[in-house]
Amino acid sequence: MSTLRVSVWRGTGEGRFQEFEVPRLESQTVLDVITYIQRALDSTLAYRFACRVGMCGSCAMTVNGRARWTCRTHVDQVAEDGRLEVAPLNHLPVVRDLVTDMTVFFDKWARARGRFKGAKSRRDGFERVSPDSPARRLADAAIECIGCGVCYSSCEVVAWNPDYLGPAALNRAWTLVNDVRDTDNRARLSAVAGDAGCHACHTHMSCTERCPKQISPTASIAGLKRATMAAAIKGEI
Ligand code: SF4
Ligand code: SF4
Ligand code: FES
Questions:
Q1: What span, in angstroms and rounded, lies between the C-alpha atoms of 86 and 7?
Q2: H or E segment at 150?
Q3: pLDDT tens sequence across 98-119
Q4: How far is it, in rounded angstroms, from Cα 108 to Cα 88?
Q5: Which of 121, 147, 167, 220 would give a disulfide with 174, using CB separation of 3.0 to 4.6 Å?
Q6: Do residues 60 and 69 lie in contact, with contact meaning Cβ atoms separated by under 8 Å?
């Protein structure tokens, strides 16, 4: 049986890579490899996953230098000369080994006012939103985000400016800007118009290239740039 040589980050921000040899199997994912190491070679290895099918977003790590969902990444796609290097996501504090602290990431969703705010009560009827309306189409294109952090970890501007809200929070804000039921858009546009908001994006596209859900945060951020400019010209923000 052939083997895979795997370097795995151990420790917190201060740490080192540790080498493991893992049996190579057919249709093996990177998450399978990490799970084998934890179950068979070193039970102290910390990592995170839940669904194993690309729904929860909790298994994202840096694999051979690139942020990915490990449960949906086959070893065949990424192994170079029988080697893998697995590290935690970039731009987030490391709790231990492959586990990052996502607090900053989700705090930025809150700063971008990424929560729906409506005006209707349970006694009002359902809002009917046509699937063909332009706003609904724009919201649909961005709404499948599962908050995995792959785009955030891949964004060069987050690396230079840790205060930058980042592609996921801004993408979420854009879905709500296009939600005709939401009543918080003036405050939302103000929240994303500042120095750490949409105008800080340099359109490098790394987020869009790497999002496993084929979402384009770059397009969402471009939409926010237009919407904040229009609101500023009208004196609304
Ligand atoms: S936009 Fe894509 S890469 Fe970014 S958090 Fe959402 S699903 Fe993950
Ligand atoms: S397009 Fe903007 S948000 Fe996306 S990676 Fe580039 S700078 Fe970051
Ligand atoms: S374990 Fe849920 S997305 Fe990978």
A1: 6
A2: helix 150-154
A3: 999 999 999 999 999 999 999 9
A4: 20
A5: 220
A6: yes
